Amino acid sequence: MSTPEPPYVLAVVGAGPRGVGVLERLGANAAELLGGRRLVVHLVDPFPAGAGRVWRYEQSPLLRMNSMPEDVTVFTDDTVKIDGPVRPGPSLIEWARQVRAGTLDAEVDDSLRAELDALQSDHFPTRRLQSAYLAWFHRKVCSELPDGIEVVEHRTRAVRLEDGEPQSLWLEDRPDPLKVDAVLFTVGHLDAEPDARETELAEFAARHDLAYYPAGYTADVDYSAIGAGETVLVRGFGLAFVDLMLLLTEGRGGRFEEQACGGLKYHPSGAEPVLHIGSRRGVPYHAKIGYRLGGKPLQLPRFFDSYAIEKLCAVPGRIDFRRDVWPLISKELAWAYYSELFTAHPERVRMDFAVFADAFADAAPGELDALVARAVPAPDDRLDLDRLDRPMAGSKFGTAEEFGKELREYIEADLGRRADAEYSADLGAFMALLSVLGQIPALVQTGRLDAASQLSELDGWFLGFFSYFASGPPPRRLEELLALQEAGLVSFLGAEMRVKSDEERRTFVASGASFPGETEARTLVEARLPEPSIERASDVLLRQLRDSGALGEEAVLDTVTGDRLLAGRIHTRVSDGRMLDREGRPHPRRFALGPHTSARSAGAFTRPRTNALPFRQNDIVAREILRLASEFAAQSRESRV
């Protein structure tokens, strides 16, 4: 009697939407590449499979997505350029409608039923409802896997990985390791130990009995020690701040009331602290856009595509992001913006679109402003990326109150613009930014970017600009911010916020560039996620791999000094997701996907019909793993002959 063929064993460390997305691609590609062989997949995650940490059900019901349900999908469609088969499925809003209609069987907690029944395409769902969608996706993927693929789930952490034939993966709750042939890390955002400056602030706080909260995922931080009425300095005005704001106000029993004249009024519970917020820009992220494109369909990318990147790299010398890349990106954004303006709002331009388009394509960067001035009469209809990026730059005010009034008017104007389809050109620029983000890994893969430019301008400034413009909160969150300011529970510290630890006064002291004066507080909160850093990774498995040299931190060569500058990210080969060790050598059977790898991909789910990069990466890695499984089976058969 013949011996059964041993299965190929894969461990997926991180069973959130990215990990399950790869599992879906394994099933989709199995008929072509697995050839009836056996594959065992171990999903390792202390949080529920499908939802993972960020989207788990067990979090505050106040926390919402910053995407509308029509813009959220975990399924490929016919726009996705992949070698494997496309397996379409419902977006979040389509899923909700099918669950309501009873045509789709999904487990939805009773606490979500009212939200599910009322959900519309332009709402912003709670993260708990997204959790139900992702949990259903996980169950669907597992139920539709072909014969020969087995899934084993482990609700625990992976703590150690050692090489060998097979590799050994230790889990936190079992004494013996899993024996696995390949490992895929889908780790999402990387938690990190405090950096040098954060450590100094924490030590200062400890010496003087103050409170300091370093960068972290807001939903996981315990802020219960912050007292009612306490003055709190908050550094950061993005999505982490929005979560913090809700948890420390409505989360402490206050409530927002709709006003008959418009806007919101906040009724305090008395348990709230007083938040003083600042950042480099001094303004919150832009509200999410609430309308659709009205003009001709955009053809993107147009000026920042693979051909443009190849042409850019054909020129000798290092590439500087601001000097060489940003002009192409800014032209891409302007093209989409003006395409929508001309075709959706022709009454606001004074040039035929075909004539404008030809002139735009031929215009050098310095010529675009003159062309736009001739074609677009109203300054408010012109795209000013510098002003958009730093709206408070150079603005000086006499007092905090004067700045607060100006910022309030700025936020009200942003809310109006993001809700008015007359400004749909902004959505054109948004769509172009998504397109640009999909091209960035190809640029990084060339290795031609100047090291300092890549770290400070691409990873720092540009990705920050993307989040600020394209990944902001639901509009209601900014309405709530205004209501909290009106209630005296929020004030604004301005642009270029600075914090010092004053030994003499034994307190934190904040100031900014927008107005004179200082604000003292005994509590300081960093309202942001940690910067990616393998060097400071808090995850025990990543630290072990780093210390052994098996995991490399992405580094780029500074051609001026000869130094290798660390980028903080898990070093991977962008073409196929293989992990690289300290010496830059790819491991044949280890892979990593996620925002903090060299590929710099966005989230695990995305807008439908955008040829989303995460889906393309998932398909590539799944096919690589299936090829390894096939080769393993062939070698196993040969060894038995």
Strand order of the largest sheet: 3-2-1-7-21-20
CATH class of the largest domain: Alpha Beta
How many beta-strand runs? 21
Per CATH, the architecture of the largest domain is: 3-Layer(bba) Sandwich
CATH topology of the largest domain: FAD/NAD(P)-binding domain
Main structural class: alpha/beta
Uncertain ranges: none
What characterizes the major β-sheet? 6 strands, mixed
Shape category: globular
Whole-angstrom Rg? 26 Å
- Domain count: 3
Quote the distance from N terminus to C terminus: 14 Å
> What's the mean pLDDT score?
94
- Please count the helical segments: 17
Strand content: 15-25%
Estimate the helix proportion, in percent: 25-40%
Describe the protein's architecture and organization:
It is a single chain. The protein is an alpha/beta fold. The protein has three domains: 8-93 and 119-192 and 533-640, FAD/NAD(P)-binding domain (3-Layer(bba) Sandwich); 196-285 and 473-526, FAD/NAD(P)-binding domain (3-Layer(bba) Sandwich), CATH 3.50.50; 306-470, no CATH class. It has 17 helices and 21 strands. The protein has helices at 17-33, 92-101, 113-118, 127-143, 196-207, 239-247, 306-313, 321-344, 353-362, 368-375, 385-389, 400-419, 425-445, 451-470, 475-486, 540-548, 613-640, and strands at 8-13, 39-44, 149-154, 158-162, 167-171, 178-180, 182-186, 211-213, 231-235, 255-258, 264-267, 274-278, 490-494, 498-502, 507-511, 519-521, 523-526, 553-557, 564-570, 578-580, 586-593. The strands form six sheets. Strands 3-2-1-7-21-20 form a six-stranded mixed sheet, covered by helices on one side. A five-stranded parallel sheet has the order 8-17-9-12-13. β5 (167-171) and β6 (178-180) form a beta hairpin. The longest helix is centred in the last third of the chain and has 28 residues, at 613-640. The protein is globular.
